[in-house]
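Handoff note, outgoing to incoming analyst
You'll be picking up this chain. Sequence as last confirmed:
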Amino acid sequence: MIKKPQPDEYPAYATGYVNKVPPGPVLEILEYLKDNTYNFFARMTAEQADYAYADGKWTLKEVLGHMIDTERVFAFRALCFARGDKTPLPGFEQDDYMANASFDNRSIQSLASEFKAVRESNMFLYSSFTDEQSLIVGTANNNPASVRALVYMTAGHELHHLDIVKAKYI
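Most recent structure output, in case you need it:
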């Protein structure tokens, strides 16, 4: 079972993500979120998916695309660290990623399906980690991060964006 990380296992910016994860087994939470988030976005109309609550803000398609990209980055970091790779990993600049993405050219249903597929793949990876592997700490963006912290950050980042969507888009 992947236990909640200690504050020294993740960068300060991730505190909000880790703290958003409710008590309980994080893998069960991720499994629940997979279906919940998929259903939420897959049921949107094209008009809803193209909505941004203000000029310069992301559309709902872009929010979901960002969630997909971020989950991939967190999972890659967790894989590298769990496998003993000591190479410091680069940062992840979301605005650069968004400038080079084409989420608005896709349907929300396509993005929702991609989200679900990425999560399903990551569930196999995260479920494979031993207790010892979950404690391994690596470096990403010049900050320490444990494998288990990255799993929690995956769930917390999703919850963070769902909160924003519910507060500002719906």
